[in-house]
Amino acid sequence: MEVFEEKVKVYLLNDVRREYMSVKIAQIIDKILCKSEEFSKFHEENKFKMYCFNGFYPIEKSEVYKKGKIYDFSIRTVDESLAKFIKENLVNEYTECIKVLTIQEKIIHERYIEKIYSIMPVILKTTQGYWRKNLRLEDFERLIKENLIKKYNQYYNTKIDENFSLYDNLIFNNNKPVPMKCKNITLLGDKITLFISSNETAQKLAHFALGVALGENSARGAGFCNYKWL
């Protein structure tokens, strides 16, 4: 399994506040997807979207990304055809806030992973909103694993044995919920680190998570993870 990472360099046409960063990045990705009949259908389907993205870098301490400056962000996916489409169609695209300058592709090959850690908040939706208000930690951990397995099963059209340990330890890297704007609402999530178990299934799913994110709303910028090899 390979994860395709498209490193995107952009020029800002207007200031972008940190809380709107993911919204603005999602807009330009949505724009190119909707230009293709195939990917427009994919965009509209009520299924997991097998890609994710992070935020602008370098980070602005003022929390305002400045008009006239150049930043980078990355899009990852496990879908080679989607990666190819993004690489060929996102260059020179623009919105009222963002103009894409260049894209460079990096392929992340499978290696033994010690840990993955979310640099964008992990979102888990419940009927009553943010999970801490109505779920136990055990429920949160179960949902993290179940969500990733569902993505894997959908993408590979399979059903894997769920009787395995995904990680040995989970650490919350935030002291309070991390807000994230998604269209017209604000969702609450968490930044977490998972120390991945050594079994083959856990390692395979952790690698898969690098391309599809943890939790929900990956196509809106949630759950993007970085990693550390052992």
Automatic annotation (TrEMBL):
A molecular function GO annotation: hydrolase activity, acting on ester bonds
Keyword annotations from UniProtKB, A to Z: Antiviral defense
Matches recorded under Pfam families: Cas_Cas6_C
InterPro entries xref list: Cas_Cas6_C, CRISPR-assoc_prot_Cas6
Every CRISPR associated protein Cas6 C-terminal domain range: 119-226
GO BP terms in the entry: defense response to virus
Protein's name in the database: CRISPR-associated protein, TM1814 family
